[in-house]
Amino acid sequence: MKIKEGKLLRINLTAQTTKEEGIDPQLIKNFIGGRGLGTKFFYDEVDPNIDPFSESNKLIFANGLLTGTDAPTGGRYMVITKGPLNETIASSNSGGVFGAVLRKAGYYLIIIEGKSKYPVYLHISNDNVEFKDASHLWGLNTHNTTDKIIEEIGEKGTRVACIGPAGEKLVKLAAIINEKHRAAGRSGVGAVMGSKNLKALAVKGTNKIESEDKDAFSTEVKASIEKIRKHPVTSEGLPALGTKILDSIINENGLYPTKNFQFSTFEFCEEVNGEALVNKGYLKKNKACFACPISCGRETQLPSGRKGEGPEYESGWALGANCGVKDLIAITEANFICNELGLDTISAGATIAAAMELYEKGLIKKEELNNGPELKFGSSEAVVYYTRQMALREGFGDKLAEGSFRLTQSYGHPELSMSVKKQELPAYDPRVVQGLGLNYATSNRGGCHVRGYMISPEVLGIPEKLDPLELEGKPKWVMIFQDLTALIDSCGLCLFTSFALGLEDYTKLINAATGYNFSIEQALQAGERIWNLERLFNIKAGFTAKDDTLPRRLLEDPIPDGPQKGAVSKVETLIPQYYKVRGWNEDGTIPTKKLDELEL
Amino acid sequence: MIKVKFYTLLRLLIKKAEVEIEVDKIKIRDLLRLSQEAAGVKFFHKLLEDDGSMKTGTIILLNGKHISHIDNLDTIARKGDVVSLFPPGGGG
Question: What counts of helices (H) and strands (E) characterise chain B?
């Protein structure tokens, strides 16, 4: 099947029906695939004001334009829905192999509607689709679920994406886990799946995905792989240390949030950084996703013998420094628990950190913990214990399962939740990096670094070094990063390719795959179109300019420690400039002129 | 004395956390040369291009501030300063 043509599979869980539909090729051209195409269908079909757990919410598994092809890292997929955590449009991205196999089964999109009367899983084998009873799987963790389904189906090459108990119990931080260790992590997408009584998708696909011009595509693929293999980040840094190459970099630059963003350097970073994971012997092997020449994944094993994958940088930070924890074994165990029970590591760690601050301030009382360990910063025991409790909604974990904003709000102190639009912030202090702060405030899914990774120019110096404290030019940079990320996501490629590849490279890959003949401006405009569509959904869901902000601590309190002591966020200055650069109204709404320009 | 600290890939390569260089005042480009001698392991190729310029993505901090916002490799380090070295890195 050709890359630029595709089908969608519409699955109604209530009636247990399935329907194949063609996709208008013009939609693929305008929205590319994956995040863009899935968002378009979601926007057109779902009322933005629905309750995320209602049957009217849909869950769209969306493959990128180049998912399943030979394009380097072409294995990524998105899960698009209305997020129960943030109540914005949620599009959660995952790697591994599942996306590639789903695309080879023939589908760009799987649109899941309604709610099953009893737990089911979907078995998709090329164009054969079955509803299978999952009652015997309900309650199992993601590893056991995956093993049992693969055994039951008995078809070699089957890949599984599933939820664990966290998704089943509607934990607002629940993730969808594929191949046991990869996560569509953020925004509670796993809980939407649980609300539909959908335990898993088991997929096998054997179709070949063909480009428009085989030779041109092959040439561009080779050229991209060569660039990735030559760049020091993708050929040396990430393979050697994984994403935990960042711990030392971020800590020494003074923006490593510690103890719920109360501090910006962690004195025990050397105990828990990427170098420690290697030197302590916990890293056993690299792991690569589908068609990936980078291989940044970490297969790890602890002295106890327990093994799994990770922790990644964000996970290690959230369950580590953000909770004041310096015990790499505990951090790794908590990370394994998140994968097994199906929980977002970033939000899990950040929610525990918020709870620790509430406890430190005497707002959560010991009696409320049901004999669990004290929620003290630095407690390894607490991080492991409450990660599990949260995933199972047991004891105090039931409150943690609502996320940091609802937790802190219930104690009368929502300002102690380090979140934007109720989604927890990741591992960089925005008071130091002004562009990243602007991205945090304006990201369409709330607290998120990856959708506009300004850390790259502002701290890492790629593609060029910007002064992180400077404001000049930042709104334009943020816009370009956000739009380019939307394009890369929609191609189904990994964002880490962007350390080595530029807009021109992605445009060449797209054109060779499809024959579209995009200019680089047209390619970037597709990303802009997708960004604006996501924002339109959020505006209709009731979000306004007042939601484009940062937690009060980060707006008002200067950084108290480290080389960036005294830094404050200037995001409130940047936002009006950002709206202008985006061509939006002063109140953050999108004028008809911009919608017409983007053909929205 | 100036402390020069090695991180990420340099730490794995050199197998030392830091070296101490006994000078009162020195340009970073000269400090790197002395540090390589003190470490006993060649590491310039991880940080610098063949022409001696910094690779895109190389991070050199003087007391936590990136030298590209001071005076690049001509930045002066003084007694008591800490210089931190990172080859290009990335993640998310």
Answer: 3, 7
Q: Which residues contact B30 (CB under 8 A, 6 or more apart)?
A: none
Q: Domains of chain B: which residue ranges? A: 2-86
For residue A58, give the 3-state DSSP assignment. Answer: coil
| Chain A residues touching residue B88 (CB < 8 angstroms) | 231-233, 236-237, 460-462
Least Cα distance to A474 among A386, A404, A558, A578 occurs for A578
HSE-CB at A182 with a 13 A cutoff on CA atoms is 24
The pLDDT score that the predictor gives to residue A6 is 83
The mean per-residue pLDDT over the stretch A284-313 comes to 96
Whether A512 shows a pLDDT value over 90: the answer reads yes
pLDDT in tens, A115-159: 999 999 999 999 899 999 999 999 999 999 999 999 999 999 999
Residues 6+ apart with CB under 8 A from A577: A475
A242 touches chain B (CB under 8 A): yes
- Residue A535 belongs to what H/E stretch? helix A520-540
- Chain A CB contacts of B11 below 8 Å: 248, 275
CA distances (Å), origin A246, targets A173, A238, A327, A402: 24, 10, 18, 29
| ipTM for the whole predicted complex goes beyond 0.90 | yes
Give the CATH class of B2-86: alpha beta
Pick the closest to residue A343 from A483, A181, A208, A467 (CA basis). A181
**pLDDT score of A544 more than 90:** yes
Output the DSSP codes for A197-230.
TEEEEEEE--PPPB-SSHHHHHHHHHHHHHHHHH
Q: pLDDT digits over A230-269, tens only?
A: 999 999 999 999 999 999 999 999 999 999 999 999 999 9
Tokens representing A224 are 């991209």
CB within 8 Å: B9 and A243: no
Distance CA A33, CA A100 (A): 13
Residue of B nearest to A245 (CA): B8
Mean pLDDT of chain A: 97
Which residues are CB-neighbours of A600 under 8 A, at least 6 positions away? A529, A532, A533, A536
Q: Which domains does chain A have, with CATH numbers?
A: 7-204 (3.60.9.10), 253-422 (1.10.569.10), 430-499+519-597 (1.10.599.10)
Q: Determine whether the interchain pair B92/A244 forms a contact, defined as Cβ–Cβ distance below 8 Å.
A: no
**Chain A residues with CB-CB distance to B46 below 8 A:** 232, 236
Residue range A15-33: mean pLDDT, rounded: 96
- The single-letter DSSP state of residue A396 is T
Closest CA relative to residue A286, chosen from B17, A120, A294: A294
A402-453 pLDDT, tens digit each? 999 999 999 999 999 999 999 999 999 999 999 999 999 999 999 999 999 9
b/e per residue A399-410 (b: at least 16 CB within 10 A): bbbbbbbbbbbe
CB A442 within 8 A of CB B39: no
Length of chain A: 600
Residue recorded with tokens 């590639």: A100
